[in-house]
Amino acid sequence: MTETANVVLVGAGHAHLHVAAHARRLIARGAHVTLVSPGSFWYSGMATGMLGGDYQAGQDRLDPAALIEAQGGECVADRVIAIDRHQRLVQLADSPPLAYDLLSLNLGSRVDPSPIFGLSSADNVWPAKPISNLWRLRQHLETALAGDAEAPRLAVIGGGPTGVELAANLVALHARYGRTPHITLVSASERLLSSAPRAASAWIERRLERRGVRLELAVSVVGHQDGELRLDDGMRLNVEHVVLANGLVAPELTGELGLSCDSRQGLTITPALHSPDDSRIFAVGDCAWLRQAPYPKLGVFGVRQAPVLLDNLCAWLAGEPLRDYRPQRRYLSVLNLGDGRGLALWDRWWWKGRLALKLKRRLDRRFMAQYGA
Ligand SMILES: Cc1cc2nc3c(=O)[nH]c(=O)nc-3n(C[C@H](O)[C@H](O)[C@H](O)COP(=O)(O)OP(=O)(O)OC[C@H]3O[C@@H](n4cnc5c(N)ncnc54)[C@H](O)[C@@H]3O)c2cc1C
User: Fold this and answer.
1) What is the pLDDT of residues 31-71, one digit of tens each?
2) Is 49 in the pocket of ligand 1 (CB under 6 A)?
3) CATH of residue 36
4) What pTM does this model have?
5) Is 256 found in the same domain as 355?
6) Residue 17 Cβ contacting ligand 1 at under 6 Å
7) How far is CA 271 from the centre of its chain?
8) How far is CA 18 from each of CA 147, 208, 371, 373, rounded to the nearest angstrom?
C-alpha cells in the first residue's frame, strides 16, 4: 500500500500494549497509528496484590501514550462512544472523530451487570473492573481501618479466582492495620473455584475460613437495599461495602456495531482475529469471541494473541495473507492469597505455598518490565 493508511487501536489492553510497543513496524508499512485510550493500562495480574497493600497504584499501571509515542505513533486520551462502519469513523466522547482504514478493538470486559435488584445504583458497590476501582476501594478502606471505629462489614460476591483473591487480599489489608475483618464471600456455586480440583477448593475454603472469612456458598444475592444484601435462601446480610466479582462479560459497544457478536462473549472473530463481516475490524482479548475455540476472559489469552495481531495488521497493510491464532488449551494461573502464599492451578494440577507466589511475582514483574515499568 503506498498511501498512508490510518490504523486506529481502541483500548490499551494487553495485546494493544504489544502493538503500541512495536508500532514502528506498522509505520514502516506506511501507516499512521493512533491509540485511543481514556487513561492508564491497569494490570489485573497485580490488582489484588495492590488491594491487599503489596503494591502501590504506580506499580500496577502503565502509561500507554509514552509507549506508542516513543514508536512514532499518537495517543488520543479519550473514549470511543460509537463506530460508523460505513463512513469508517470512530466517534469519541470529547474529541473530533477519527477516520480509519484499519481498526482494532481491545476494549476488555466489565463485571456482569446481571440484575441484582438495587445493586447497580447503590453507593459503596465496587465492581472488580475497571481495576482502578480496587485502588479507590483500598484508599477508602485504609481511611476507615486507620480510625477507631469497628472495621467495615464487607461482602465479596463471586467464588471464582477473582472473588477468592479479593477476599484473601481484603483480609491482608486488615492485617496491616491489626484489625479483625468482617468479610463474607457469597457464591452461587457449591464450592469455591468450581473449575479447580476438588481438593484445591476444599483447601482454599478452609484457609479463608481460618483467616476469618465467612463463606456463604450455593446461595445467590437477589437484592440490595439500605446496606442490606438479600440472599435467595432468605438470609439478610448487613454490609457497608459490596465487591462484585461475579464474572466478566463483553462491553456494550461490541453489540452496537451491527457485526456478528454474542451479547456476553463479545464480537465474533475469525482465527485471523477480525470480524467475519468486516475484515477491516480486528478484535482481541476479553471483548472478542472466537466461536470455534472460545477462550476464557483472562489477560494471558490477550498476551498470546498480541504477536498474531501485530503480524496480521502488518500483513493486511502489505496485502499479504493473515495467519491464524490458536488459543492455548492449558494455562497457568496463580492466585495471590495475600499472606505471602500463592495457589497455582495448571490443568488438573494444583499446588500452594510461598514458591507459587514467588513465581507469580516474577511473571508479573517481567510482564510490566517489558513495557518500561
Ligand atoms: C481483580 C481481577 C484480577 C484478575 N487477575 C487476572 C490474572 O491474574 N491473570 C489473568 O490472565 N487475568 C486476570 N484477570 C482477568 C483480566 O483482567 C482480563 O481478562 C484482562 O484484563 C482482559 O484484557 P484485555 O486485554 O482484553 O483488556 P484490558 O486489559 O481490560 O484493557 C481494556 C482497555 O480498554 C479500554 N477501553 C474500554 N472501553 C473503551 C472505549 N470505549 N474507548 C477506549 N478505550 C476503552 C479500557 O480503559 C482498558 O484500558 C483478572 C480480573 C480481575 C477483575
Assistant:
1) 999 999 999 999 999 999 999 999 999 999 999 999 999 99
2) no
3) 3.50.50.60
4) 0.96
5) no
6) no
7) 22
8) 43, 37, 8, 14
